[in-house]
C-alpha cells in the first residue's frame, strides 16, 4: 500500500486541497482571459483569487502536518 497524502489525509485536508485546486484554476483562467482580451481589470481580479487558492493550499499543508503529528504521537 502506498502512503500518499491523499490516502492518509483527513477529510478536511482533502476538502482544502480540492478547494485550492479549483480556486487557483479559476483565478488563472480569469487572469488569462483578462490578458487575452486586453482587460487589465480582469487580470487584477484574477490575482487575488489565485492568492486565495494559495492560502487554501497552505492551510491544507498545516492540517496535514497537524494530522501527521497526531498520528505519530498516538503510535508512541
Low-confidence runs (pLDDT<50, min 5 residues)?
Answer: none
Q: How much is the average pLDDT?
A: 93
Question: Which percent range fits the helix content?
Answer: over 70%
Strand content: under 5%
Instruction: Specify the overall morphology.
Output: elongated
Distance between the termini: 22 Å
Explain what this protein looks like in three dimensions:
- 88% of the residues lie in helices and 0% in strands.
- By secondary structure, the protein is mainly alpha-helical.
- The relative contact order is 0.17.
Which features does this protein show?
single chain; about 80 residues; mainly alpha; 3 helices
Quick recap:
The protein is mostly helical.
Task: Describe the protein's topology.
Blueprint: H1 5-8, H2 11-37, H3 40-75
Helix pairs in contact: 2-3
Amino acid at each position: 500500500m502506498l502512503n500518499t497524502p491523499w490516502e492518509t489525509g483527513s477529510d478536511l485536508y482533502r476538502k482544502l486541497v480540492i478547494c485550492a485546486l479549483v480556486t487557483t484554476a479559476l483565478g488563472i483562467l480569469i487572469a488569462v482571459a483578462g490578458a487575452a482580451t486586453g482587460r487589465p481589470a480582469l487580470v487584477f481580479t484574477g490575482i487575488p483569487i489565485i492568492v486565495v487558492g494559495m492560502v487554501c493550499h497552505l492551510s491544507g499543508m498545516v492540517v496535514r502536518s497537524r494530522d501527521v503529528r497526531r498520528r505519530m504521537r498516538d503510535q508512541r
